[in-house]
Amino acid sequence: MIKDKAVRKTAKGASTARVAQQSKLKTGARRHHDTNVDQILGSAASLFAEKSFGLASIREIAARANISFPRIYYYLRNKEELLYLIAKRGMERLLVSYPKRIEGVTDPAEKLRIFIENHVRLSTGNPSETKVAVQDTGKLSEPYLSEIRALERHYSMIFRTLLVEVAQAHGNELDRARSRVLTSLFFGALNSVPTWFDHARDAGRQQPIAAEIYRLFVNAV
Asked: Are 66 and 104 in a shared domain?
């Protein structure tokens, strides 16, 4: 009986070790897969920004990502899915990073300043991705387009809510029509930053740029 218990304990230990090893292998494979996907998305974004979504080919994207042309279809179905994933990743990066940066912040004006600074930092840090998201997202078909537009509306509503809260803190009321106009002007200004931002000239100036945009809008309400 003692021997049986020892055998069962050994078998259980071996089984646990196998599960741990399999889990480790799966984790490693998933990391490798995620790294390759990131590499493909980065290569696709740079090519779409240079040549446009319509002119860039999957073969060119595979070559830039150092992945064989047939193998790239292991990671994606078609070029449109690449555009969707680029736009989705950009929006999710903005939506995830902002709440983390305002933890413990209660002042609406400070939240607005952080919102703008966060956007400028991320958009200038990923200029190709930002350019593609602004210029080419409308070329997506359904259901991709609806999903991206829903993320954009959610992000836009965060800003509109901040404007209303800042106006109230100033003792003012911001009606729906004016908040819509200010929101459109705001994202027009923000989305133009990567088009003129020069890393050789403007590197390290993201914070002053964000501060100028902040002053324009905080004083508008």
From this structure: no
What is the spatial distance between Cα 29 and Cα 59, in angstroms, rounded to a whole number?
Answer: 24
Residues 160, 161, 164, CA angle at the centre, nearest 5°? 90
Is the CA virtual torsion 196, 137, 186, 156 positive or negative?
negative
Q: Are residues 85 and 11 in the same domain?
A: no
Task: Determine the 3-state secondary structure of 22 from DSSP.
Answer: helix
Max CA-CA distance within the chain?
Answer: 83
Amino acid at 26: K
Residue type, 84: Y
> pTM for the whole thing?
0.83
DSSP assignment letter at 54: T
Q: Which among 84, 76, 38, 37 has a CA at the least distance from the CA of 58?
A: 76
pLDDT at 35: 85
CATH number of the domain encompassing residue 59: 1.10.10.60
Report the CATH number at residue 115. Answer: 1.10.357.10
- Is the confidence at residue 29, as pLDDT, over 80? no
Boundary residue ending a domain (53, 76, 99): 76
Summarised one tens digit per residue, pLDDT across range 33-69 is 688 999 999 999 999 999 999 999 999 999 999 999 9
Range of the domain at 14: 1-76
